[in-house]
């Protein structure tokens, strides 16, 4: 079994001797400088620190008109497992995990240990000499069909990976200039860089940035005939999420995926799976495409790969990689040693057979509980959607009305959930983890009728029962 590489013992740096006091005074040069500094210190100390006021004044309004936080005063300081804790010490059950980011939950001991250990090393040596990328790559390239003859490219996040996918597809044109078009699917989401935005169908996201990359066409998801009308010998690649997350947790049909693979082969077109949200254990399999017995040419991973630290990865066949030449693609922070050391630990845990079996078991338990609610409240619940297979912790609760009130009700019961779907709106509540190194999560209030459940992969039946109880009480009280 692959083992996490052993590093040399950590040696704490010796504290440096402070400079002489007279030298520090001389550096200030004059009494006037001292006076100004003292005045500034008193003025700063007189103003109480408020994260809400700070964000409203200084942060760009990318998520909310009043700043990044739409729920004043709600500030999370730390987390443990599937729970988050705010400044008042209140405990919240987290059922969206930073939109599928916190796969191992919050405060995982191994992730924290490796983050601390790796941070004492060089933070970012030259990309050609970084020490811990190979274990990350080889670890995930061992157990599956995708693993055979695979090459990795490491980056910072998922949308960078999709942009790289597009670049790598163009490098594989048999004849220069003959393959320059792409196909992606309606209701899909691939990120917010220029190239990734082009692949994302949703007009509300794209229109402000037009024109974007030319030559991208949008097919109907799970409709092979719509793909046949668009694909040609000019098509360089077809991008697809095996399970559409932002679109509302819609899984691809098995027959559709098989026909799509055959169609790509017919036209010498690359099949590219975006598994940023649905990959790495979320569906009960390491990779979502394994559910379909279909092997893509390129795959993108990100979100849970490094336990909340920024990382993205592109896996490509050796045939695709052979066409990539030095300097065609680059990234400043891709393959960062600290992040890769943590990713090794995350992969070790997720790839354990018992871990994935537990995800399947808990996913089935969650879906069964939601289906019982659907039977009990048919006027409230229209559908329950989940990936194909034995079960995964990626489930949609489709309601008969917009779910904004249900999200607010759950928040009042200290349960965090998120919406999805075509009416998903990015004006949102951002939950800032203040006081520790951690990530920013987003809890949208919107007009969507879909609740997207993507909790940490370590939730237990007690957590699921708590969520189901909140839903049941909400429906009994006619919250919707």
TrEMBL record:
InterPro entries: Aminotrans_3, Aminotrans_3_PPA_site, Class-III_PLP-dep_AT, PyrdxlP-dep_Trfase, PyrdxlP-dep_Trfase_major, PyrdxlP-dep_Trfase_small. Keywords: Aminotransferase, Pyridoxal phosphate, Transferase. The keyword Transferase applies. Coiled coil: none annotated. It holds the Pfam family Aminotran_3. CDD domains: OAT_like (cd00610). Residues 118-140 are annotated as: Disordered. Its cofactor is pyridoxal 5'-phosphate. GO terms for molecular function: identical protein binding; pyridoxal phosphate binding; transaminase activity. Belongs to the class-III pyridoxal-phosphate-dependent aminotransferase family. This is Unnamed protein product. It comes from Phytophthora lilii. The lineage of its organism: Eukaryota, Sar, Stramenopiles, Oomycota, Peronosporomycetes.
């Amino acid at each position: 079994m692959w083992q996490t590489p052993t590093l040399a013992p950590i040696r704490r740096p010796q504290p440096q001797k402070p400079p002489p006091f007279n030298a520090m005074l001389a550096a200030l040069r004059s009494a006037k400088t001292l006076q100004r500094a003292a005045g500034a210190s008193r003025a700063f100390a007189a103003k109480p620190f408020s994260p809400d006021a700070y964000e409203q004044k200084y942060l760009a309004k990318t998520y909310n008109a009043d700043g990044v936080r739409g729920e004043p005063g709600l500030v999370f300081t730390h987390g443990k497992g599937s729970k988050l804790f705010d400044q008042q010490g209140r405990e919240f059950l987290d059922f969206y995990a930073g939109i599928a980011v916190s796969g191992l939950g919050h405060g995982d001991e191994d992730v924290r240990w490796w983050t601390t250990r790796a941070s004492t090393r060089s933070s970012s040596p030259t990309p050609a000499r970084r020490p811990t990328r190979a274990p990350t790559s080889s670890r995930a390239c061992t157990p599956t069909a995708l693993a055979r003859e695979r090459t990795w490219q490491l980056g910072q996040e998922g949308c960078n990976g999709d942009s790289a996918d597009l670049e790598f597809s163009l490098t594989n044109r048999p004849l220069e200039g003959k393959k320059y078009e792409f196909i992606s699917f309606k209701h899909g989401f691939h990120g917010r860089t220029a190239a990734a935005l082009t692949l994302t169908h949703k007009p509300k996201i794209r229109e402000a940035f037009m024109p974007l990359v030319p030559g991208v066409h949008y097919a109907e998801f799970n409709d092979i005939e719509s793909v046949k009308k668009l694909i040609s010998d000019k098509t360089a690649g077809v991008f697809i999420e095996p399970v559409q997350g932002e679109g509302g947790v819609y899984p691809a049909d098995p027959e559709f995926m098989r026909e799509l693979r055959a169609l790509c082969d017919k036209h010498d077109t690359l099949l590219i799976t975006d598994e940023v949200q649905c990959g790495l254990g979320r569906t009960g399999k390491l990779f979502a495409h394994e559910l379909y017995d279909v092997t893509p040419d390129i795959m993108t991973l990100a979100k849970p790969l490094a336990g909340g630290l920024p990382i993205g990865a592109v896996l490509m066949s050796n045939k695709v990689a052979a066409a990539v030449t030095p300097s065609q693609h680059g990234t400043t922070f891709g393959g960062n040693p600290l992040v890769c050391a943590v990713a090794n630990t995350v992969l070790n845990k997720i790839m354990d057979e018992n871990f994935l079996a537990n995800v399947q078991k808990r996913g089935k338990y969650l879906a069964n509980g939601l289906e019982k609610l659907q039977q009990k409240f048919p006027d409230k619940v229209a559908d329950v959607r989940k990936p194909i297979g034995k079960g995964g912790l990626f489930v949609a609760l489709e309601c008969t009305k917009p779910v904004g009130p249900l999200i607010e009700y759950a928040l009042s019961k200290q349960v965090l959930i998120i919406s999805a779907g075509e009416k998903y709106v990015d004006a949102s509540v951002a939950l800032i983890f203040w006081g520790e190194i951690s990530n920013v999560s987003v809890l949208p209030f919107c007009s969507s009728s879909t609740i997207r459940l993507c909790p940490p992969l370590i939730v237990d039946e007690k957590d699921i029962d708590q969520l189901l109880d909140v839903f049941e009480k909400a429906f009994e009280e006619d919250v919707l």
